[in-house]
Specification:
10 helices, alpha+beta, seven-stranded mixed β-sheet, seven-stranded antiparallel β-sheet, about 35% strand, about 20% helix, about 475 residues, disordered N terminus
Length: about 475
């Protein structure tokens, strides 16, 4: 009896504790308007309903229709096959077409102009786009433009009595903030889920060209793409985009594009119909402890190393050199190559930026004017942890006389997985080499560790080999 009584008391008081927790959590957000409901004794209970009544009309369902031509079976080109199966000739002259439909979500960001924000992948390739409202109305939408690298698209509908959602400053988001995801999961219709911001600045996922995701545990499922992620004040903080789903469903790891990041592309699409992204003209990679030691940057362990500067690019004109370690962009600290790429990629052609680098252990500032997209900022992805030298590596002079070519890397070589067959080594410990003779001289002058600059395909990168 005693155990049963205690269990009853725990069950009795848990809801009250949960209510108190939610009350103070929402109160901390300054959301006084979230407490209109009362229980049977007149006590106020927390609710998101008032906020959602203002936001839900601005979140829309998006249906896309795509017509695809079905490829004809090659066997139909065989006369014997056609005679054997009695295939009429007229079927060969009329390729079949298949009309498919898919569902997604969007959010109205300008009620007067009928501007709707969604994901690029939701409307990509669609022949017809229909926007469905919460009140049952539907409108045919026009695609104003899109940015595949960020995965946003801007639509326009001709309609009256629309509601829009206010854009927040997503830079003010913090891990632990409460957020609400609104969308059209699995085509069910408008659905609301809640959660918190689990992490910020997620990159390297390989989902989009430019990544700086908000991670949330608010349930995001197929069909939620393009929907709204809002704070407890009903302001748009992100655009729901992707989920990590090993089993095919939601596991509590969803990603949203920060609204500040999306707004940069939105403004350009509305102004030009496209995104004119500025470029610095460098190839970059992450600063590692090995590279930090090699480039004499002191205790600093994070940043972006310049592996290549393209000729006549914005970086070249500004005076940035190979081997510089970028540590700040416009007075904002740079911690990785992905962060630098995102920061530059969100600026326009002609924008002026200030790049702070470490060169030979000293800070230097350069002012650059971003150029058009003829020269890009490329992130070099390579294995940057090396713990061996060149035993088992076969080298020869490159045919173009511009370096040393790696012709073979033994499977058991210490450099296996770091150097690859076909790599062109162009410098050793920041000393230019054009043939095996200069390479050998540079090796003999080394003190054990090797800092190699390698050209791999169209990409240049730094590799550290050390005993």
């Amino acid at each position: 009896m005693t155990i049963q009584l205690r269990s009853f008391r725990v069950a009795q008081y848990l809801p009250l504790k949960a209510i108190v927790f939610c009350f103070f959590a929402l109160l901390a957000q300054g959301s006084w308007a979230l407490f209109p409901q009362q229980d049977g004794e007149g006590r106020e209970l927390p609710s998101l309903a008032p906020m959602l009544k203002n936001v839900n009309p601005a979140v829309v369902n998006i249906s896309t229709f795509t017509t695809r031509t079905v490829r004809q079976n090659p066997l139909l080109n065989d006369p014997f096959f056609r005679r054997f199966f009695n295939v009429p000739e007229h079927q060969l002259q009329q390729p079949q077409q298949r009309r498919t439909q898919s569902a997604g979500s969007g959010v109205i960001i300008d009620a007067k102009k009928g501007i709707v924000l969604t994901n690029h992948h939701v409307v990509n390739g669609a022949d017809e786009i229909t926007v469905g409202m919460e009140d049952g109305r539907s409108f045919t939408a026009t695609l104003v433009g899109s940015d595949p690298d960020v995965d946003i698209a801007v639509l326009k509908i001709e309609a009256k009595d629309l509601h829009s959602v206010k854009l927040a400053d997503s830079e003010k988001l913090e891990v632990g903030d409460y957020v609400v995801a609104i969308g059209n999961p699995f085509g069910l219709g408008q659905t609301v889920t809640t959660g918190i911001v689990s992490a910020l600045g997620r990159t390297g996922l390989g989902i989009e060209g430019y990544e700086n995701f908000i991670q949330t545990d608010a349930s995001i499922n197929p069909g939620n793409s393009g929907g709204a992620l809002v704070n407890l004040r009903g302001e748009l903080v992100g655009v729901n985009t992707a989920i990590l789903a090993p089993s095919g469903g939601n596991v509590g790891i969803g990603f949203a594009i920060p609204v500040n990041m999306a707004k940069v592309s939105i403004d350009q699409i509305l102004e030009h119909g496209e995104v004119r992204r500025g470029q610095l003209g460098v190839v970059i990679q992450d600063l590692t402890p090995e590279l930090a030691d090699a480039f004499n940057v002191g205790k600093r362990q994070r940043g972006a190393v310049i592996a290549e500067v393209q000729k006549d690019s914005a970086a070249d004109t500004a005076g940035i050199e190979v081997g510089d370690v970028v540590v700040e962009l416009d007075d904002k600290e740079i911690l990785s190559s992905a962060q630098l790429r995102n920061s530059v990629g969100l600026k326009r052609v002609g924008d002026r930026i200030t790049v702070t680098v470490l060169r030979d252990g000293k800070r230097k500032e350069f002012r650059a004017v971003l150029a058009a997209a003829s020269a890009g900022t490329v992130v070099a992805t390579n294995s940057q942890s090396a713990d061996g030298l060149l035993k088992g590596v076969t080298l020869r002079d490159a045919d173009n006389g511009q370096g040393v070519l790696v012709t073979e890397v033994a499977r058991d070589a210490d450099a296996a997985g770091k150097l690859l067959q076909g790599d062109l080594i162009v410098s050793v410990n920041q000393r230019r080499v054009v043939d095996v003779k200069q390479f050998s001289e540079a090796l003999s002058a080394s003190k054990g560790r090797l800092l190699l600059r390698v050209v791999r395909g169209q990409m240049a990168l730094w590799i550290v080999l050390q005993p």
